[in-house]
């Protein structure tokens, strides 16, 4: 227990910034109009594509004798890929809502 308390006391500023960023992020995303949501999703997908490239580069430079590093790198690539694919699926479905329906 003493180790946990010393961790929190030594990283107090970083924890404060993390909590502040969570609240600011919730406020910013909560006030985005629906018209801007699709472009923001596309931008987030592009950023996550860069994250996947970074995860692949880190995984390529990982020490092969440390299996935990390889597992975490592999999970980062898989979860990043799932995030990008899911974002594109959601963006595609949102764009389908704005198309005109064919008349019978």
Report on the structure:
The chain has 104 residues and is mainly alpha-helical. The protein has a domain at 39-104. Helices cover 84% and strands 0% of the residues. Helix 3 packs antiparallel against helix 4. The mean pLDDT is 84.
Quick tags:
single chain, 104 residues, mainly alpha, 84% helix, flat
Based on Cα principal axes, name the global outline: flat
Number of distinct beta strands: 0
End-to-end Cα distance: 69 Å
Rounded to an integer, what's the Rg over CA atoms?
20 Å
String of helices and strands: HHHH
Largest sheet geometry: none
Number of continuous helical runs: 4
Mean pLDDT: 84
How large is the share of residues in beta strands? under 5%
SSE map:
Layout: H1 2-10, H2 12-30, H3 34-60, H4 67-98
Helix pairs in contact: 3-4
Question: What's the short version?
Answer:
By secondary structure, the chain is mostly helical.
